[in-house]
C-alpha cells in the first residue's frame, strides 16, 4: 500500500510503518501527479483536497489530522466514494491553552472578565467548560446549538460586548449561517473599550482589511491573531498592529498532534481492515522535567509565571515578527517563511503533563489550576 502524507504529521512511521510505503511531502502544494499512485492521503489543514488534486488518482482514503474539514471538498469525496475522516477534538486542548497563554502575555486576568466565545464546537466548547469551571461568566454565540446544548447562548451583538471575545468557528461560505467575514467592520466597531479579541479558528472569519482599519482608528483594542486571511501570505501591516501574532500554531501542541495522528490511524485501520499494532499511550514520550514550583506573589502573578514557564508564547510572536522584518528587507519569501515556522515549530507539551509543587489543595487558585489541567504535587514527591 502506498501512503502519501504531509511531512508535518508526527510519528507517521511509528503508526503507519507496518501498513505500507510512506512518502512525506510538503502539504501546502501537493500536486495530482504526486498523489496519483497513492492509496491513502494523510494531511493537515493546509492541503486543499478536491477534484483538482484527486481526479484520476488511486486514492481510496483521505485522513486530515485536524479538527476542521473546510479544506476538504466533502461532496466531491462522497461522489467519488472516497472515505474521508478528520480528528475531532484532537487539538482542542492545545488551542484552549493558547488562549490562556495569550491572555497571560497581555496581563489580562480572564477570571475577572466576561468572556464571549464565538463557535462552541470542539474547541470553543472546551474553552467554555474550562472557564465555567473557574466561575468565569461566559456568553456564547453558535447558531448551530440550542439552549439544551449550552445555557449561555446569546446573540452575536451581546457576545461582542464582552471584555474578551475568542473566535473558534470553522470557515463556511454556504448554508444559513456562513462564517466568512462574520466579523466585518460593523461588528468590530461594536467591541467595547479595552476589549481583547482572539482569533484561533479560521482567518477569514474576521475581515482582515476591516480589522486593520479599525485598529488604525482605535488603539484601545488588544488583538491576538493565530490565523490570517490569505495564509501563508498574510497582511504585514496587520501584523504590525496586532498585540500578539503567531503562524497558525495554536493547535500545534505535541500532544495534540499525536492525538490527531492516532485518530487517523484508527480510522485508516478500520477502513482497510488492518489490525492496530501501535498505541498512543506507548508512543507518547513523557516529559522528563515535569515538576514546576509556584513563584511568590499574588495568585495572578503565580499563574502567569507558571503558564509562561510551560509555554513561551512570546517566542511565537517574536519569530513571526522577525519573519515580517526579513520580508520587508527582501531577505526571505513570506509564504515559505510562514510555512517554515510551522514546519519547524518547537515541541510544546500540554499543561496536563506537569505537576505543580506547592499548589494549594483548595481555593480559587486550586480550582483554576485544575481547570487548566495542571496536576498537584506534594513537596516530598
UniProtKB/TrEMBL annotation:
Chain sites annotated for binding substrate: 45, 66, 252
Pathway participation: Cofactor biosynthesis; pyridoxine 5'-phosphate biosynthesis; pyridoxine 5'-phosphate from D-erythrose 4-phosphate: step 2/5
Domain spans labelled Erythronate-4-phosphate dehydrogenase dimerisation: 285-373
UniProt-listed CDD domains: ErythrP_dh
Reaction(s) catalysed by this chain's protein: 4-phospho-D-erythronate + NAD(+) = (R)-3-hydroxy-2-oxo-4-phosphooxybutanoate + NADH + H(+)
Active site: 202, 231, 248
Residues that hold NAD(+) according to the record: 142, 169, 226, 251
Class of enzymatic activity (EC top level): oxidoreductase
EC annotation from Swiss-Prot or TrEMBL: 1.1.1.290
Record's keyword terms, sorted: Cytoplasm, NAD, Oxidoreductase, Pyridoxine biosynthesis
Stored PROSITE patterns: D_2_HYDROXYACID_DH_3 (PS00671)
Record-annotated D-isomer specific 2-hydroxyacid dehydrogenase NAD-binding domain positions: 109-250
Pfam family, one: 2-Hacid_dh_C
Localization annotation: Cytoplasm
Role played: Catalyzes the oxidation of erythronate-4-phosphate to 3-hydroxy-2-oxo-4-phosphonooxybutanoate.
Family membership: Belongs to the D-isomer specific 2-hydroxyacid dehydrogenase family. PdxB subfamily.
UniProt subunit comment: Homodimer.
Name used for this protein in its record: Erythronate-4-phosphate dehydrogenase
Lineage: Bacteria, Pseudomonadati, Pseudomonadota, Gammaproteobacteria, Cellvibrionales
Gene: pdxB
Amino acid at each position: 500500500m502506498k501512503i502519501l502524507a504531509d511531512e508535518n504529521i508526527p510519528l507517521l512511521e511509528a503508526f503507519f510503518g507496518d501498513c505500507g510505503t510512506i512518502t512525506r511531502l510538503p502539504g501546502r502544494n501537493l500536486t495530482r501527479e504526486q498523489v496519483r499512485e497513492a492509496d491513502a492521503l494523510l494531511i493537515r489543514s493546509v492541503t486543499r483536497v478536491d477534484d483538482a488534486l484527486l481526479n484520476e488518482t488511486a486514492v481510496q482514503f483521505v485522513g486530515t489530522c485536524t479538527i476542521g474539514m473546510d479544506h476538504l471538498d466533502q461532496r466531491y469525496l462522497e461522489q467519488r466514494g472516497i472515505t474521508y475522516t478528520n480528528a475531532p477534538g484532537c487539538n482542542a486542548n492545545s488551542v484552549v491553552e493558547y488562549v490562556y497563554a495569550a491572555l497571560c502575555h497581555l496581563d489580562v486576568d480572564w477570571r475577572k472578565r466576561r468572556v464571549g466565545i464565538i463557535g462552541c464546537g470542539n474547541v470553543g466548547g472546551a474553552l467554555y467548560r474550562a472557564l465555567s469551571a473557574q466561575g468565569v461568566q461566559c456568553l456564547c454565540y453558535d447558531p448551530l446549538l440550542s439552549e439544551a446544548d449550552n445555557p449561555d447562548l446569546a446573540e452575536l451583538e451581546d457576545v461582542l460586548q464582552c471584555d474578551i471575545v475568542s473566535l473558534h468557528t470553522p470557515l463556511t461560505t454556504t448554508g444559513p449561517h456562513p462564517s466568512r467575514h462574520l466579523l466585518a467592520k460593523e461588528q468590530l466597531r461594536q467591541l467595547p473599550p479595552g476589549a481583547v479579541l482572539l482569533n484561533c479558528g479560521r482567518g477569514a472569519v474576521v475581515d482582515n482589511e476591516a480589522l486593520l482599519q479599525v485598529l488604525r482608528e482605535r488603539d484601545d483594542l488588544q488583538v491576538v491573531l493565530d490565523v490570517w486571511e490569505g495564509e501563508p501570505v498574510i497582511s504585514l501591516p496587520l501584523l504590525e498592529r496586532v498585540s500578539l501574532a503567531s503562524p497558525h500554531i495554536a493547535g500545534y501542541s505535541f500532544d495534540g498532534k499525536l492525538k490527531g495522528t492516532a485518530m487517523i490511524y484508527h480510522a485508516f485501520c478500520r477502513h482497510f481492515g488492518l489490525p492496530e499494532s501501535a498505541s498512543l499511550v506507548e508512543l507518547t514520550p513523557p516529559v522528563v522535567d515535569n515538576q514546576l514550583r509556584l513563584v511568590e506573589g499574588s495568585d495572578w502573578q503565580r499563574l502567569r509565571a507558571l503558564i509562561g514557564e510551560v509555554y513561551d508564547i512570546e517566542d511565537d510572536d517574536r519569530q513571526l515578527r522577525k519573519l515580517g522584518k526579513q520580508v520587508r528587507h527582501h531577505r526571505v519569501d513570506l509564504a515559505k517563511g510562514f510555512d517554515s515556522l510551522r514546519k519547524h515549530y518547537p515541541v510544546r507539551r500540554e499543561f496536563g503533563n506537569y505537576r505543580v509543587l506547592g499548589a494549594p489543595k483548595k481555593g480559587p487558585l486550586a480550582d483554576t489550576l485544575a481547570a487548566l489541567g495542571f496536576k498537584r504535587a506534594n513537596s516530598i514527591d
